[in-house]
Amino acid sequence: MKQDDRIRLTHMIDALGHAIRFTEGRSRADLDKDAMLTSALLYQIQIVGEAANNVSQDARDQHPQVPWPVIIGMRHRLVHAYADIDHDILWTTATEAAPALLAQVKSILEAD
Q: From the candidates 8, 63, 80, 87, which is the catalytic residue?
């Protein structure tokens, strides 16, 4: 695997870890009341999408189990439709999708 891809995957791992930690001990209702939590999750999920977008097409093709288009699309949605963020989707992404994706990305690096 190219070094640049390893770096991007590491960025994804770091940002996913942050998002997961930010939600620990928190509830979905906290997201509506805590602007700092919302901003933190938005930023970390954006980083995940930006890093995924910069993983080479070869690496993405080698790992089709990762939903690359969904991850990248989420980043575009958060950045370009920032005024219309669905907090339910953001919360589900951080609490359900992020742990599964973190495991996938870690396994890619461990296998390389």
A: 80
8-state DSSP, 26: -
The SS3 assignment for 12 reads: helix
The token duo for 41 is 């999750």
Cα distance between residue 30 and residue 99, in whole Å = 19
Domain extent listing, the chain: 3-111
Which of the residues in the chain have pLDDT under 50? none
Check 8, 11, 18, 75 and give the catalytic one. Answer: 75
Nearest Cα to Cα of residue 95 among 20, 30, 15:
20
Indicate the SS3 state at residue 27.
coil
**pLDDT for 43-62, tens place per residue?**
999 999 999 999 999 999 99
Based on the residue annotation, tell me whether 11 is a catalytic residue of this protein.
Answer: no
- CB 31, CB 91: distance < 8 Å: yes
DSSP letter at 8 equals H
Q: Is 26 a catalytic residue?
A: no
